[in-house]
């Protein structure tokens, strides 16, 4: 496994200034890295272990960027929860839990450790592993599409309040019918750098997404391709991804779809006759955080 050489691990042992940490598990992983858990692991050249990993991002005493991969997922989860609550937590993984020390960061980090040089790539001689860098999100593509879906999941109420039930024309597939006047149902909003699109290709894209999502019910997709998390009341927030698309939905409500072929567009899918059953079926096969 790349990054496990002793020199790289030793380089981070003496002084790693921890800046942040994230989970890399089937139910919770940085979706910018891939459409599913195995794909996200592959981006770091890690085996997709069932229990997952914790990723600790920091700088060494020289300011070099390092990503330390640990198998103590609980420790990292506690640290993240504490930080989210505004509490201090000294994340210091035991060296016996370190799986790999990878040069660079796979995610963008906006802060830096005080008192050390500015973040930079480590000396190439310290590790045989390729230097990690965040995916390019400057232009619309899979990485930015997945980040857009992350935003909708986090800000569901903000996006949902822009939709009125009257906007849906109640077609069989829950999307706007060809020839209908443009409305929020034909593209509720735009992410940065969004551009327009024709209604017919858009409807075709939504049909493809729904068909591929239905196929997951009969042929389970790679682990993490469908995830379920808490929502309000008894509802669940569903996240499903596939080649060229992402979907965010509430089991008691509608869905939003983002497509690689529709730059910046957020497309709502009404409940209609089929969506409730599809969401219920997806929720049954989805992985859930512990």
What this model shows, in words?
- The model is unreliable at 169-188 and 192-197 (pLDDT under 50).
- The chain is built from seven helices and ten strands.
- Helix 6 (199-218) packs across helix 7 (275-285).
- It has a six-stranded antiparallel β-sheet with strand order 5-10-9-8-7-6, with helices on both faces.
- The chain is α+β, with helices and mostly antiparallel strands and 290 residues long.
Number of helices: 7
Shape: elongated
The percentage helix is: 25-40%
Quaternary structure of the protein: single chain
Radius of gyration: 21 Å
Q: Give the percentage of residues in beta strands.
A: 15-25%
**Alpha-beta content class:** alpha+beta
